[in-house]
Amino acid sequence: TRPASVRSAMARHAGPRLPLIVKNLIPTLSSVFDSQRITATAFFAELLSNNVVNDLILLETCMDNMTGRQKDACILVRMLALRGLGNIASGSPEKVRKHGAKLLASMVNGMDDKDDPHNLVALEAMSSLSKLLDHVEERDIQSMLLHIAIRIRPFFDSEQPDLRQSSIMLFGNLTKFSEGNCEVFFEQILNGLVTLLLHLQDPKPEVVRACKFALRMCGPNMGCEGLCDMFLNHLREDRSLHYGEFMNDVCKHLMQSYPEMLNRLISTNLFYFKSNWVDIRAAAAMFIGFLVLHVDEDHCQQVDLDQLLSGE
To answer: S-S: 45 plus which of 1, 37, 84, 294, CB 3.0-4.6 Å?
Structure first.
């Protein structure tokens, strides 16, 4: 039986017996057998998505045991433990605020997992963190904001679409907390802006939707009303996008508001000339063309023509 089905059945019917079941399962979390630790962790993770753990005063017990599995030798156990901690957002959202700092630290540790060749733990950490963000105290996320933004940035270009989608969605969600770190986070928005705009041409529709969401969230933090309005109006999920016209107008606003960024924007786009995705290579060339078209004469000298002509 799948863990979700077991958890659901037990939540409905086991009632007062659940504390004893949980108590008897705890030793299994330290079993020498991977399969037993995986099964027990999956059960605890699913249990945490139901408010029954709160009713039966099991939340702290389950949460502490999931936190304790973060150093497990098995990747799947570490991944499931993070899923369980993220599930508190749906099972006991009112408790997330109380344990926010601890939960956020677990997600950051998961993103920094060094023994995760396929990034399964990092993916779960990003997905779970996005769920928790609606319920944490702003002060708890503020101290970690910059570290998280920098850590997830490489995933924007991952070959794995689910990593691209999750990291970009998380970045969009992080912007809600950027007010206190406006200047610092603005730099992170600028670092990711070209990538987000280019991935509007991503081959995967779910990644395109994530980019639209992230750009809509970034707009109000960019200090340019024209760009903000464009992102809000043209990047609605239900609206198709004429990419060429959109990028022409975006570059016009960028060069009016941030002309000193021209060389930086060109250099970032040149990096994408080597992208594996043909549509993104084409978008990068178009992006540079529109930037040069709209820059004023005073800032033309920023352009490194040798670099531009060589495409490197």
So the answer is: 84
Cα 170 to Cα 282: distance, rounded to the nearest angstrom: 27
- CA 288-166-5 angle, 5° bins: 160
- Type of residue at 132: L
* Fold of the CATH domain 1-136: Leucine-rich Repeat Variant (1.25.10)
- How many Cα atoms occupy the beta-carbon half-sphere of 7 within 13 Å? 21
Spatial distance between the Cα atoms of 273 and 168, rounded to a whole number of angstroms: 21
CA distance 161 to 132: 22
Nearest to 76 by CA among 33, 22, 47, 130: 33
Where are the domains positioned within the chain? 1-136, 158-311
Which of 121, 137, 124 lies closest to 87, judged by CA?
A: 124
Cα dist. 198→138, 237, 249, 297 in Å?
A: 31, 17, 14, 26
The helix/strand count (H/E) of the chain reads as 19, 0
Per-residue pLDDT of the chain (312 residues; tens, 9 = 90+): 455 565 556 655 666 788 888 899 999 999 999 999 999 999 999 889 888 888 778 899 999 999 999 999 999 999 999 999 999 999 999 999 999 999 999 999 999 998 999 999 999 999 999 999 999 988 888 888 888 999 999 999 999 999 999 999 999 999 988 765 567 788 889 889 999 999 999 999 999 999 999 999 999 988 889 999 999 999 998 888 999 999 999 999 999 999 988 989 999 999 999 999 999 999 999 999 999 999 887 766 666 666 666 666
